[in-house]
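FAQ: What does a ligand-bound record look like?

Like this one, built around nicotinamide-adenine-dinucleotide:
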Amino acid sequence: MRISIFGIGYVGAVSCGCLAELGHEVVGVDVSAEKVAMLAAGRSPIIEESIGELIACNVAAGRLRATSDVAEAVANSEISFIAVGTPSAPDGSVSLAAIDAVLASIGAAIGAKSGPHAVVMRSTVPAGTAETRCIPALEASSGRKLGAGLSYYSNPEFLREGTAVRDFHGPAMTLIGAPAGDDAALLREIYSPIEAPVHVVPYKIAESAKHLANLYHATKLAFANEAGAVLAALGVDAREAFRLFCEDRILNISAAYLRPGFAFGGSCLPKDTRSFLALAEQTGVAIPFLRQIMPSNEAVVERAFAAIAAHGRKPVALFGLAFKPGTDDLRESPYVTLAERLIGRGYALRIFDSSVRLASLLGANRAYIEREIPHIDALLVPDVATALEGAGIVVIGHVSGKDRDALLAALTDQIVIDLAGIGPLAALPGITYQGFCW
Ligand SMILES: NC(=O)c1ccc[n+]([C@@H]2O[C@H](COP(=O)([O-])OP(=O)(O)OC[C@H]3O[C@@H](n4cnc5c(N)ncnc54)[C@H](O)[C@@H]3O)[C@@H](O)[C@H]2O)c1
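The answer part, i.e. the structure of the complex:
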């Protein structure tokens, strides 16, 4: 395939070398005359393991060249990869100035050629950039419409500097954002020698998954550095503690706790977070990141309350009261906090939770309920139907098994705020469905 790559910095230079090595005819384009001259002479514009040899070999073999002539590069390629910089603007938002400039010049060049052309965004851009910015810009500058001689894909880059060539050949996945009905055959073909699962998803999902990756890496580092500093100040070998922590692939290094939804609670997470913060206080180590955990969790409850309040003061049926399904443990349950918030603001409220109901009738938790939350105990109802009586808003924290089926069958015209993502509710006729994070 004939490929043009716009931006021959860290990402673009690696793509140039690796795609040429896969046998494609590649041309690198940059606004920097110096980088163009270096690549054209077979020298890498970046320092990166094995990229020097890859570039030298492929330039010598005639598969890789460089130019600053956008029109020529687009005219002589079927597909253009964009790998220009997306640095921070002074206000912290992303600057898309280089993206805008490169799209305008690529679009004009597409307008001037006859065959179809595909544009692939490898630069990291925020969710929505494809649909609100890139495609309209390309359509305007090329005079073509998406799907009519013009294609656009998001194809985020996950490589790390230092191991970029290895990462190119062994990514965790190939992620492609595409319009509905387009399975990105062209890109699949280009990446066919790379052994990695290919996911073709809506543009916004692809853009977000890349954004999330870097946000998460930063989050992990902030967590490890702050918690590690506290442990070190307590005389603990933090690296050894972290090594063992990472050995738990079930809960720690896994997809567990990474499904967006409602707040955490229960008898362990809040208590142990607070106690670690208290330890940190004694050491004097600054932990601005960890200090935000509890306020962040409280904000989730507040967001749920605001989502309910946005619909006016309608009677509410709350499904789920314990901090998670299948337990009667009400200690620090965020659903109790939410219920108390609703009661405090004068909402008519009914609550259904089969495990808590059982405990309230006969379990050991009976004493806890009577002592700590008698005002909430009075609102517990015995079944789904009673909970729904007169309810204008149904809030789903958790509900399972036959109760879930009964709820799905009984919903008619209520507003449903789903904090848990329990199932195919959005498709139910009559109801107004609102997912909490989806
Ligand atoms: N560096 C990484 O490890 C890495 C990894 C994954 C994703 N990314 C993302 O990839 C993108 C590129 O990052 P980078 O580190 O390679 O940036 P970079 O600054 O090294 O390279 C960008 C290149 O684009 C060129 N450029 C700017 N405007 C241009 C235009 N109109 N036409 C042609 N070339 C133009 C610049 O001269 C520069 O050579 C960014 O969005 C970044 O967030 C970077």
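Follow-up question: can I read anything off the structure? Yes, for example: The chain has two domains: 2-202, 296-435.
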